[in-house]
Amino acid sequence: MQPGELIAGDRGARAPRGDDLARAWAVLAQVMDPEVPVVSVVDLGIVRDLGWRAGHLHLVVTPTYSGCPATEVIETDIRLALERAGFPAPELERRLTPAWTTDWISELGRERLRTYGIAPPQGSASKRSLLGEAPQVCCPQCGSAQSELLSQFGSTACKALYRCRECLEPFDYFKCI
Amino acid sequence: MHKHDLIPYLLLLGDSALVQGQRLCEWCGRAPALEEELALMNVGLDLVGQARNWLEYAAELLADGRDADALAFRRDERAYRNLLLVEQPNGDFAVTMTKQFLYDAWHLAMLQGLVGSADERIAGIAGKALKEVTYHLRRSSEWVQRLGGGTEESRQRMLAAIPALWRFTVELTAGSDNEAQLAQAGIAADPASVGAAWRQQVCEVFSAVDLPLPKAASHFYLDGRKGLHTEHLGLLLAEMQCLPRAYPDATW
Question: Which CA distances in Å does B151 have to B99, B189, B209, B228?
Answer without folding.
Answer: 20, 38, 12, 38
